Amino acid sequence: MSENNLTHFDAAGNAVMVDVSAKPVTTREATAHGIITMNAEAFAAVQSGTVKKGDVLGVARIAGIMATKRTSELIPLCHPLPLTKVGIEFRLLPERQAVEALCTVKTSGVTGVEMEALTGVSTALLTIYDMCKAVDKGMELGEIHLVEKTGGKSAELVDAAARDAYSRLIHPSLENELRGELSDAAAEGAIKVFGDNLRQLLLQPPIRGKTVMGLDPGYRMGCKVAVVDPTGKVLDTNVVYPVPEFKRVDQAKKTIKAMVLKNGVEVMAIGNGTAGHETEEFAAEVIRELADEKNLHLQYMVVSEAGASVYSASKLAAEEFPQFDVNLRSAVSIARRLQDPLAELVKIDPKAVGVGQYQHDMPQKRLNETLDGVVEDCVNSVGVDLNTASAPLLRRVAGVSAATAKNIVAWREEEGAFTSRAQLKKVKGLGPKAYEQCAGFLRLPEAKNRLDATAVHPESYAAAKALLDACGYTAAEIGTDKLAGLPGVVRAKGAGTLCEALGVGEPTLNDIVAELCKPGRDVRDSLPKPLLRSDVMGLDDLKPGMELTGTVRNVIDFGAFVDLGVHQDGLVHVSQISDKFIKHPREVLKVGDIVRVKVLNVDTAKKRIALTMKGVPQQN
Predict the structure, then answer these.
(1) Which of 105, 113, 102 is nearest to 86 (CA)?
(2) 384 pairs with which residues across the strands?
């Protein structure tokens, strides 16, 4: 029989019950949904079972089932059916102060049971209304609709079409979309971790005023040695073989001692790469012998050499050290990293410094943008000495391009040292806008105008001078102890009054006051100093329960790696970092932190060290 012949009207237009005798008998099922919302008092009574008329949901369930069975008597021209299953379920929805009802009806017949399901759910909700109306007459029935219908020819076709659409089109699309969203979220999280770690690495405190010996460990090619003076100038280079296998340890000791005495070396920087531990043991032994023989008390620090080989083979390194081979350049880089990590690490691609996670799986454009932004922000936060900064460091200053940075260095070489910030306007390619962006970050410690040594922007010079005049000071006193009372004078006169007189905002006023008191202050000076050592330990020396001091080398999602001076970083799992709950190690730790840890376990075969910070007092 055609579906078009299933009608409630005969040829004369009279109402009739549809003739379904020709349709096949199939198993048919339908589920209907509805809710009833009520006030808080009525909902609480239903929830607690304290409605005076009795068990609301129990009675409503029976009423719904009875109505389902009599649907053909309630709905005109509806076929009476032998129902094989009727079920009504209720769910309380506290957030909506509502009761949700589902009615499922099943039969084996020639027509569907959707009307029975809709009748059952409607009657059940009406029964709830009737039993609770004394408490709330404003209850509302809603969202009554057919949820699902199965059985019958059309239902089978719809079901097959729906299943095909889901398995072939919808599910793959949803899977790809969800995977994409999760991948994007993971990439953003990893990029943020990388950026935060890079920031802390770049902002590690420098070791100023020290002559440093850099040791780049190696086996076959030997240990490359470079000595640099406090300004980073290379004083001496050599290659030694401190590893016992080469049987040239005594000769290596003589060479290192001679270089130390000749150049006045105060600190050694040792790379943590291949043969690093052997070189560290050798250096510690040399330090002990120098203390006994010459009463010299040197110290050393193991420095991450991540990216050193990349830099040493780069065009930039070749331009900077054309007289040295690739191996010696890396030793110079290691020594300079200890002196000023920021100035040296800006020469290296940020992705090569070894403080990220999953960096090769991340969107490279987004990663590069973030890391370049972090480097520029760090350089701007610290400030740059206009007369000593290299071109790679200058190009990280806001407003300064790579070409402009080279032009600044070229102008400096041709005309001599800069004596004022205003001379920047004479540099080729540095226009008014670029000057406006970069001037505040470029400093001249020896300038005649003392404001050129501060982070005060030239456009605020007039305000700074007016502030000094208003408070009874002169520009010559900038940076001296005489200006220690400036903040007190500003408070006494009133920040608001001074801001109005000077034509600046209060944040600008506070920045000017801070710079006048401590011109050219370095944000890195307030951070923990690098941990220097004079003796060495091995993995075999570690025992469970030992408490040690170490340096945080990397912070990732599941914990932090801490350098204990045993050539193998130990892991502090996120669950072992704090006595209180933390979501991410970044909440407590950052790269460069000096921490106290306790050894939990040492696996010498796999070279793994498990550490904890729980219950270990930390140094302030």
Answers:
(1) 105
(2) 442
DSSP 439: G
State both tokens at 512: 């000017």
Report the first-to-last Cα separation within the chain, whole angstroms.
88
Please state, as a whole number, how many other Cβ atoms lie within 10 Å of the Cβ of residue 59: 17
Q: What are the structure tokens assigned to 146, written together? A: 């057919």
* C-beta of residue 78 within 8 angstroms of C-beta of residue 19: no
Residue bearing tokens 């050393």: 300
Burial (Cβ within 10 Å: 0-12, 13-18, ≥19) of residue 161:
exposed
Catalytically annotated residue among 19, 55, 130, 603? 130
Q: How far is CA 461 from CA 3, 400, 440, 454, in A?
A: 89, 22, 11, 10
Whole-model pTM? 0.64
CA dihedral 131, 132, 133, 134 (to 10 degrees): 100
d(CA 135, CA 46): 10
Backbone angles phi, psi at 36, to 5 degrees: -130, 125
- In tens, the pLDDT along 360-419 reads 777 888 888 888 888 888 888 888 888 888 888 898 898 899 899 999 999 988 988 899
Q: How many separate helices (H) and strands (E) can be counted in the chain?
A: 20, 16
Find where tokens 């001037």 sit: 439
Residue type, 458: P
- Integer Rg of the chain from CA: 39
pLDDT in tens, 242-280: 988 878 899 999 999 999 999 999 999 998 878 888 888
Active site residue 541: no
Rounded to 5°, the CA angle 231-234-237 comes to 150
**224, 272, 279, 303 from 276: Cα distances, Å:** 12, 5, 5, 10
In 3-state terms the chain splits into helix, strand, coil percentages (rounded to 5) of 45, 20, 35
The answer to whether the beta carbons of residues 114 and 146 sit under 8 Å apart is: yes
Burial (CB count within 10 angstroms: exposed 0-12, middle 13-18, buried 19+), residue 62: middle
How far does Cα 375 stand from its chain's mean position?
A: 15
Query: Would you list the DSSP string of 503-518?
Result: T--HHHHHHHHHHHHS
Nearest C-alpha neighbor of 396 from the set 411, 410, 377: 377
The Cα 3–Cα 115 span in angstroms is: 18
φ/ψ of residue 513, rounded to 5: -60, -45
Query: Which residue bears the tokens 């140094």?
Result: 619
Asked whether the beta carbons of 455 and 442 are under 8 A apart, the reply is: no
**pLDDT above 50 for 3:** no
Q: At what angle do helices 461-471 and 506-517 cross, to 10 degrees?
A: 70
